[in-house]
Amino acid sequence: MLDIRRLHMLKTVAARGSITAAAQSLALTAGAVSQQLATLQHDVGVDLLRPDGRTVALTEAGQVLLEHTDRIFAAVEEAECAIAAAKGTVGTTTTLAALPSTVARIVAPALTALGTHHPQLTVTCLVTDQAQLRELTLGTVDVVLGQRYHHMPDTAPRGIEISPLLDDPLLVVTAADQAGEGPIALRDLATHSLAVPPPATDCGQAILRACHQAGFTPTTRYITADIAAQLTLARAGLATALVPRTAIDPATPGIRTAPIEDHSIRRLLFAATRHTEASNPTTAAVIAALLAAARQDLTTHHPALVGLGRPHGTERRGLGRQDPKRRPVHDRPDKS
Predict the structure, then answer these.
(1) Contact (CB, 8 A) for 164 and 319
(2) What radius of gyration, in Å, describes the C-alpha atoms of the chain?
(3) Residue 322's pLDDT band (boundaries 50, 70, 90)?
(4) Does 112 or 319 have the greater pLDDT score?
(5) Phi, psi (5° rounding) for residue 110?
(6) Helix or strand holding residue 50 (H, E)
């Protein structure tokens, strides 16, 4: 009989690309992982991995076994969730992965509420901007608070269920004494020195795309994905920043924020979980807390949008229309 732990190692190696990387994520030595995979290959009687430059790749047999492995783990998780749903109680542990820019305004309030309503639940929070949905498919996290910029396609890995949380526009951030009142036209930033994320990031791409639509190539004097650094540069009057609304503390001194009146740049914040986990009361409680925190943030800081419901064109399990000309993005870094 196949050992489910060894199957999990095979799945992890395939996702990480090397035995060393897989061992690090599994908190094992590379030798231990290699030994277990050798035993698995002996059990099935065929090679499952082959060298691929500095990495490893699945053989044809390895790919076949991985497809069955995915179904095996889905069935196990469905059984576990069915039992949890029958019990009807929130569990004791779960893991959430979230973007750094969502911690203050959404994650922290959600975790506070969970602590009040479900004091027995311990949430481990992984704050990261790297390939969150991939971690979800590997089972290293249970819920992801992720993002998708509106210029990007609606793409998620197979077996992932999406719940939209909040439409989050980017705001123009300047020093408090350097701008007037009211919205700002994006084209008016053509003469500004900008502090923006690297162009390879999702946010950086969204900003470049919007600026080009507005008829100019931005002057990016400061390139950093660190939002705190962007705000510091703006407050010092050295640059103008474009920052997601929920990433800005409204009490931050010395800055002025203004909406973009044309060529809006927006990201959709969403909660994601494995489809097999959707009925789990623990996972449902975490997603409900994130949704409540997002709605409260909207009520507190953007009351004009309250009552509009979910972002236009979004439904559960989908994030909007897909542009077939663009490649999938779920393994890109989730900067901002």
Answers:
(1) yes
(2) 22
(3) very low
(4) 112
(5) -65, -45
(6) strand 49-52
Report the alpha-carbon distance of residue 156 to residue 162 in Å, rounded. Answer: 8
Q: In the prediction, which pLDDT does 156 show? A: 72
Residue 112 confidence (pLDDT) = 97
Count of Cβ atoms closer than 10 Å to residue 303 Cβ: 9
Nearest to 106 by CA among 131, 130, 125, 93: 125
In degrees rounded to 5, what are phi and psi of residue 296?
-65, -40
Q: How many CA atoms lie within 13 A of 240 on its CB side?
A: 21
Amino acid 133: pLDDT? 84
Q: Record the tokens describing residue 224, joined without a space.
A: 């950093």
**Tokens standing for residue 305:** 């949008």
pLDDT band of residue 95 (cuts 50, 70, 90) is very high
Query: Count of CB atoms within 10 A of residue 191's CB?
Result: 9
Asked if residue 259 lies in contact with residue 242, where contact means CB atoms within 8 angstroms, the answer is: no
Residue type, 82: A
Instruction: Say if residue 303's pLDDT is above 70.
Output: no
| Alpha carbon distance 191, 307 (integer Å) | 37
The pLDDT of residue 301 is 64
Name the strand (E) or helix (H) holding 68.
helix 60-87
> Which of 149-163, 164-178, 208-222, 293-307 has the weakest average pLDDT?
293-307
Q: Are 90 and 281 within 8 A, CB to CB?
A: yes
- Whole-angstrom Cα distance, residue 293 to residue 275? 23
Print the SS3 string covering 136-169.
Answer: HHHCCCCEEEEEEECCCCCCCCCCEEEEEEEEEE
pTM for the whole structure: 0.73
Contact 285, 142 (CB under 8 A): no
Q: What is the pLDDT of residue 318?
A: 38
CA pair distance 310, 299, nearest whole angstrom:
14
